[in-house]
Amino acid sequence: MDVQLYIYDLSKGLARQISTVFLGTQIDAVYHTSIVMEGIEYVYDGGIKTVNPGGTHLGKPLEIKMLGKTELPMDVIMEYLESLKEIYTAEAYDIWTHNCNNFSNDFATFLLGTGIPEHITNLPQTVLNTPIGRALQPEINQRVDRKQHRNGGLLGIENTANAPKTHQQIAATIRSPTTMIELDKILQEAKKSCAVIFFTSASCPPCKKLYPLYDELAIEMAHKAVLIKVDVSRCFDIGTKYNIRSTPTFMTFLHGDEEDRWSGADPAKLQGKVRMLTQMAWPPHPHELLHLPTLRNTNGKAVMYSKVPPLSKLKAKMGPAAEDGAVSGVLHFVAARASEGAAEVRLPDLDSFSWFLRQAPSKLPTEIMFTIVDLLRVALVDPRLSGYYAEEKDHKTIAPLLSYVNDLKDCPYSLRLVALQTACNLFSSSLYPQHILCCPALTEPIVRLITTSLLDDKHHNVRVAAASLSFNIALANSKIRAEEHHESLPDGDQIELAASLLEAIGVEEESADALRGFLLAFGYLIYCMPKDGEMIDLLKSMGAQDTVLAKKKIFPDEKLVLDIGEVLLGKGLE
Question: Does the pLDDT value for residue 341 go beyond 90?
Answer without folding.
Answer: no
